[in-house]
Backbone:
């Protein structure tokens, strides 16, 4: 199996609840399961059904920045923007100013991430029909933003 296929293989989530310990003792029961907030403009939102032992559920609501947050953390604490590789390229090449304004809003959050639905290898390899340097320009722009990048 090649590296690209291996990196895309997902592991099913555990069936047990996430254990949280403090000073060697479990405090899991004292911490409620989070509710994931999904921006109303998200066209094809993630489904979190397989994580019912970790996540209480989802609520669709307008977020001022990003696509996902956690209830109670949406005001300046936690935000995530999700982009497919194609959407990310189009956004940076054709709607750059809007994207940078969005990143500026995200920079005000304590924890922020940009989830690019592509492998790092996909980002380095030119796509058919795009200039050879497009993905590398994209990567350089993303690094300038200094977000926490997650490649899926």
Residues:
């Amino acid at each position: 199996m090649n590296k690209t296929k291996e990196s895309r293989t997902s592991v099913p989530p555990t069936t047990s609840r996430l254990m949280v310990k403090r000073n060697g003792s479990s405090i899991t029961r004292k911490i409620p399961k989070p509710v994931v907030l999904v921006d109303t403009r998200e066209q094809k939102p993630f489904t979190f059904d397989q994580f019912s032992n970790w996540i209480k559920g989802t609520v669709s609501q307008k977020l001022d920045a990003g696509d996902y947050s956690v209830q109670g953390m949406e005001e300046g604490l936690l935000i995530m923007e999700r982009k497919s590789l194609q959407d990310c390229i189009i956004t940076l090449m054709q709607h750059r100013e809007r994207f940078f304004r969005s990143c500026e809003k995200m920079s005000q959050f304590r924890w922020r991430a940009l989830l690019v639905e592509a492998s790092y290898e996909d980002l380095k390899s030119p796509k058919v029909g795009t200039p050879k340097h497009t993905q590398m320009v994209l990567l350089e722009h993303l690094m300038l933003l200094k977000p926490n990048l997650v490649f899926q």
User: Anything to note?
Assistant: Residues 1-8 have pLDDT under 50 and may be disordered. The chain has one domain: 12-151.
